[in-house]
Amino acid sequence: MTVEYIHASKFGNGAKVAAAFREELARRGIAVNVHHVKDLKPAEIPGADLYVFSAPGRFGRPIKVVRRFLDGLQLPAGTRCAVLTTEMAPKPDKKTGRMPTEEEFCRFQHVRPIMRERLQARDLVEVAEEVVYVTEMKGPLEDGWEGKVAAFAARIAEEVGTGAARAS
């Protein structure tokens, strides 16, 4: 069983998340090949049981190189995938000190919905989604991010195992 993890990382946060994800799945006996999006062509992705696409958010959207990569994907319809993003953590309003509600935050943060839309346009099936927040533009990652990645990896391990059982 293999997982191909394709990510973008400008300040190293996405690379940290990818390394932690790979370690978590290795403990479960699942091989993860990690690639930076700039090192692959969308039409030449290796075969896998599941693909994880990871992108940082910039101005509420996935960075351009990831959007273009997802638009050029050539995977068979029904291919299973997951999304794991690194996005800016919600901040309190500077004037009132009030934290934005989930609804208010979602009005400006569209990283995962944009990625989901592009994957669905390619008839890929998303099986899991998670976000790891970055506290400042260049990091660090939020407290407890390792636990989020471990829980996400557990969901992926279950999905890969389920997919292998379906194929038998």
Name its key features.
38% helix, Rossmann fold, alpha/beta, 168 residues, six-stranded mixed sheet, 6 strands
Write up this protein:
The protein is of the alpha/beta class. The chain has a single domain, classed as Flavodoxin domain (Rossmann fold). It contains five helices and six strands. Strands 1, 2, 3, 4, 5 and 6 form a six-stranded mixed sheet that branches. The chain starts with a strand and ends with a helix.
Gist of the model:
This protein has 168 residues and is α/β, with parallel strands linked by helices. The protein has 5 helices and 6 strands; from the N terminus they run βαβββαβααβα. It is 38% helix and 25% strand.
Write the SSE topology:
Blueprint: E1 2-7, H1 13-27, E2 31-36, E3 50-58, E4 61-62, H2 64-71, E5 80-88, H3 102-108, H4 111-121, E6 125-134, H5 145-167
Parallel strand pairs: 1-2, 1-3, 3-5, 5-6
Antiparallel strand pairs: 3-4
Helix pairs in contact: 1-5
Q: In percent terms, what proportion of residues is strand?
A: 25-35%
Look at the structure and give the CATH class: Alpha Beta
Number of domains: 1
Q: Name the structural class.
A: alpha/beta
